[in-house]
């Protein structure tokens, strides 16, 4: 159906601009100042917050809830059934925050009943063309995923992560705050906070010192992070020995507490 105000009473805000060729399901909720381009399809139980822009030829399926100020470029598929062969039509969800950009041909899938049932994307993220976010992934804020980056199911990305183009992350992988993954990398272990990693399979390459400086980390904090990295990856310590060293220093350095907590939650092993 097209944008017929009688069929959508209470669902489409009067300020929304919906092209005559777009199809909007009667259960969809379209917020204030939303723009939906030609030939886009907004499916059942999709909620789009205020000031979002949906380009032509976008498909959004639900249950999906999108916050305000998001931009979705052409040919993106948002909120589709996942590709997990165990998925059997259960009700699962996609939740998207505010001010994200999904470039051309991104694919974002809902969760599975085998996990918590929800894929979540935070705020202020940039997903470049052809990025794939699989079922049950959890993404924080201020993340950049370059072209063709691929996240397998159950992947968790903390805030301020950067992933290079053509990189692939194995299912259940975690990436810590301010970590950076180089292009064309294959990631099968967790990437701790502040680390740079690259390769096939990815290996630790140092810390993201330039990124930390840009984000306002003090020189003293960066030095402590470098020492922690050295204890983990360069001094020949066992993982438990390195964790003990970092724990002792984390008492007086909040930045190291983030790293220490990440290491204590690890189950896949980390790049070293």
What structural keywords apply?
4 helices, 272 residues, single chain, eleven-stranded mixed β-sheet, alpha/beta, disordered N terminus, UDP N-Acetylglucosamine Acyltransferase, domain 1, 28 strands, nine-stranded parallel β-sheet, elongated
Topology:
Elements lengths: L16 E2 L4 E2 L4 E2 L4 E2 L4 E2 L3 E3 L4 E2 L4 E2 L3 E3 L4 E2 L4 E4 L12 E4 L4 E2 L4 E3 L8 E4 L4 E2 L4 E2 L4 E2 L4 E2 L4 E2 L4 E2 L4 E2 L4 E2 L4 E2 L4 E2 L4 E2 L7 E5 L2 E6 L1 H6 L4 H15 L5 H12 L3 H11 L8
Parallel strand pairs: 1-4, 2-5, 3-6, 4-7, 5-8, 6-9, 7-10, 8-11, 9-12, 10-13, 11-14, 12-15, 13-16, 14-17, 15-18, 16-19, 17-20, 18-21, 19-22, 20-23, 21-24, 22-25, 23-26, 25-27
Antiparallel strand pairs: 27-28
Helix pairs in contact: 2-3, 3-4
Structure characterization notes:
It is a single chain. This protein has 272 residues and is an alpha/beta fold. It has 2 domains: 17-157, Hexapeptide repeat proteins (UDP N-Acetylglucosamine Acyltransferase, domain 1, 3 Solenoid); 214-264, no CATH class. It is 16% helix and 26% strand. It has 4 helices and 28 strands. The strands form 3 sheets. An 11-stranded mixed β-sheet has the order 1-4-7-10-13-16-19-22-25-27-28. The chain has a 9-stranded parallel β-sheet with strand order 2-5-8-11-14-17-20-23-26, with no helix packed on it. Strands 3-6-9-12-15-18-21-24 form an 8-stranded parallel β-sheet, with no helix packed on it. A hairpin with a 2-residue loop joins strand 27 (195-199) and strand 28 (202-207). Helix 2 (219-233) packs antiparallel against helix 3 (239-250) and helix 3 (239-250) runs antiparallel to helix 4. The model is unreliable at 1-10 (pLDDT under 50).
């Amino acid at each position: 159906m097209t944008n017929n105000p009688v069929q959508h009473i209470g669902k489409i805000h009067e300020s929304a601009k919906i092209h005559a060729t777009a199809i909007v399901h009667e259960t969809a909720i379209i917020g204030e100042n939303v723009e939906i381009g030609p030939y886009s399809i907004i499916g059942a139980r999709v909620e789009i917050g205020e000031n979002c822009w949906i380009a032509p030829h976008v498909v959004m399926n639900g249950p999906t809830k999108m916050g305000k100020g998001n931009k979705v470029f052409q040919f993106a598929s948002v909120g589709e059934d996942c590709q997990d062969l165990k998925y059997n039509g259960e009700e699962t969800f996609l939740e998207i925050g505010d001010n994200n950009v999904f470039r051309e041909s991104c694919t974002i899938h809902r969760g599975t009943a085998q996990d918590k049932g929800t894929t979540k994307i935070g705020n202020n993220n940039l997903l470049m063309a052809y990025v794939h976010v699989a079922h049950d992934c959890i993404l924080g804020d201020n993340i950049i995923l370059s072209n063709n980056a691929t996240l397998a199911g159950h992947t968790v990305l903390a805030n301020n992560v950067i992933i290079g183009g053509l990189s692939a992350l194995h299912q259940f992988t975690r990436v810590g705050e301010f970590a950076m993954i180089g292009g064309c990398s294959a990631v099968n272990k967790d990437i701790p906070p502040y680390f740079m990693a690259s390769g096939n399979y990815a290996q630790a390459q140092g810390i993201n010192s330039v990124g930390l400086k840009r984000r306002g980390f003090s020189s003293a904090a960066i030095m402590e992070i470098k020492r922690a990295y050295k204890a983990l990856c360069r001094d020949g310590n066992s993982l438990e020995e390195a964790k003990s060293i970092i724990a002792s220093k984390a008492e007086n350095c909040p930045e190291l507490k983030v790293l220490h907590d990440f290491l204590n939650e690890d189950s896949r092993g980390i790049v070293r």
